[in-house]
Specification:
This is Sugar-1-epimerase YihR. The protein is mainly β. It contains no helices and 21 strands. The chain is about 0% helix and about 45% strand. It is globular, with a radius of gyration of 18 Å.
Length: about 250
């Protein structure tokens, strides 16, 4: 046991993954030894919610306050820079291993009611490695309380082309409309010094979509696909050695 909880090693074909039980986090994913996501040491606390599962909300709640079903609620503000409640309540909780094999693991957790979120949930995350398809992630949540609960879920991978600086990488996003009413990266474009910290409407909203990053120098592409969802959030700090995140 360490600060990441327990480490689970998965393998299928040339794919390998390390999962940590704290936050049901993806600590490492490689193919033929090349990194697909930014890794972190399982025994260390990662920066920026790296690889964590975000429940019952991804992204940020401004001032930690929200209105739902005729009532006002106040969450703890845990991001002092933006003064928001960020990335849910389960990223730093230790999930329980439900089932495990050489290529798959199921993690579960109970989220009890709290003052800012008085709703009860049971969540399950399944990580499955396949030799031909890579990593698949399934997230299921059941409301076990008496009231309808506000709920959102997200994952937080930081894509990489084998840890190369991303300035010369090309990025493609499934963007239909961006909150700043700008449209870019709908076709492969060099990232360069572009700063990205936006939530996008996806295109089309009722079909599977894909985020892809390609490194010409590495002759390598990393990507993830998502079942139908209305929005996608993308983050990249404006420094030359920064890396993209989900």
């Amino acid at each position: 046991m360490h600060c990441g909880g327990k480490t689970i090693h998965l393998q299928a074909g040339h794919y390998q993954a390390k999962i940590v039980t704290v936050g049901a986090g993806l600590a490492e994913l490689t193919h033929r030894g090349r990194h697909i996501v930014i890794p972190h040491k399982p025994e260390e606390m990662p920066l920026a919610h790296l690889g964590k599962v975000l429940i019952p909300w991804p992204n940020r709640v401004v001032d930690g306050s929200y209105h739902y079903n005729g009532k006002d609620y106040q969450l703890a503000v845990n991001d002092s820079v933006s003064h928001t409640a960020i990335h849910g309540l389960l990223a730093w909780r230790d999930w329980q291993i439900n089932q495990q094999s050489a290529s798959e693991v199921s993690l579960t957790i109970f989220l009890p009611p709290s003052y800012g979120y008085p709703f009860a949930l049971v969540s399950e995350v399944i990580y499955r490695l396949e030799a031909t398809r890579g990593l698949q992630v399934f997230i299921h949540t059941q409301n076990v309380g008496d009231e309808i609960a506000p709920y959102g879920v997200g994952a937080h991978p930081y894509l990489t082309c084998n840890l190369q600086p991303i300035d010369d990488c090309e990025l493609t996003l499934p963007v239909s409309e961006e909150t700043c009413d700008e449209r870019y990266f709908t076709t492969p474009q060099r990232i360069a010094q572009t700063a990205i910290d936006h939530t996008f409407r996806t295109m089309p909203p009722d079909a599977e979509w894909e985020v892809r990053m390609t490194s010409p120098s590495q002759n390598m592409s990393t990507f993830f696909t998502q079942p139908p969802a209305l929005v996608a959030s993308v983050y990249r700090r404006k420094i030359s050695t920064a890396r993209p995140g989900g």
